[in-house]
C-alpha cells in the first residue's frame, strides 16, 4: 500500500555533488513513472517522467533510471544546488490516478 | 494553457466546524480531478477522484466528502471537522499522458 504514514527518509549532500534518490515501486505492470519535487508549503511539481519501454531518460541536470527487473526507479541530480533542497516523490501510474512513494527529503549543504 | 486554482492557502478551523475547500481548473475540459492529503513530513494520500460531473470515487473511508458540481470545479467538504483532519490538502488534474498537475495546496489546522 502507499507509504503515507512513514516519516520521510532523508538525504544530505554537499553543494556541487551529485544526488541519487531511489524509489521502489510495487506493480510490475506499471508502464509510466514520474518524479515530482515538492518545496515546503507548495504543491508537487513535475520534474521528469519515463515510460516502461525505456530504462533511462535525461533532462536538464536530472536523469531518471528505470530497472524493471527489480522494480526500482532512481533520480540523479547533477551538480546539486541549494535550490534543489526539497522533498522528492516518485509516482507510478495506476488505472485512475498516480500512486506515490513515501518521498525523500533532500538537503543541500553549502 | 491550463491552470489550477486552489483556495484558501491556509485555514484554521475549530473541531466540529464545517469545511469547504474549492479547486478549479482552467484551460481544459472534462479533466480527471483529484484530492490528496499530506500529513506533515509524510507522503501523499489519495482521498477522492472524479472523472466527470457528479462522479466521485472515494479511496479511503473518512470524515470528508467531495463533490463536482461543474466540469472544472472540485470541492472537498466536511460537516464536522476532527483534529485528525489537519493536514496539507492538494487538488490535482490529470493532463495528457497521465501526468498529475497539482495546485498550491491548502494548509488546514483543526484546533
Features:
heterodimer, A: 110 residues, mainly beta, 4-stranded antiparallel sheet, 52% strand, globular, disordered N terminus, B: 111 residues
Describe the structure.
The complex is a heterodimer of chains A (110) and B (111). Helix content of chain A is 0%, strand content 52%. Chain A has 110 residues and is mainly β. With 111 residues, chain B is mainly β. Chain B contains no helices and eleven strands. The radius of gyration of chain B is 13 Å and the shape is globular. Chain A binds chain B through residues 2-8, 32, 34, 36, 41-46, 49, 89, 91, 93, 96-98, 100-103, and chain B through 6, 32, 34, 38-39, 41-46, 49, 51, 57, 88, 90, 92, 94, 97-105, 107.
Please give a quick description of this structure.
The complex is a heterodimer of chains A (110) and B (111). Chain A is mainly β.
From the alpha carbons, calculate the radius of gyration of chain B and give it in angstroms. 13 Å
Question: What value does the average pLDDT of chain B take?
Answer: 93
Q: Characterize the quaternary organization of these chains.
A: heterodimer
| Rough outline of chain B | globular
Helix/strand structural class of chain A: mainly beta
Overall mean pLDDT of chain A: 90
Characterize the largest beta sheet of chain B: strand count, sense, and whether it forms a barrel.
Answer: 7 strands, mixed
As a percent range, the share of helical residues of chain B equals: under 10%
Question: Largest sheet of chain A at a glance?
Answer: 6 strands, mixed
Sheet/helix structural class of chain B: mainly beta
Secondary structure tally, helices of chain B: 0
Helix content of chain A: under 10%
Regions with little confidence, pLDDT below 50 for 5+ residues of chain A: 1-5
**Hey, which two chains have the biggest interface?**
A-B, 27 and 28 residues
Q: Provide the gyration radius of chain A in Å.
A: 13 Å
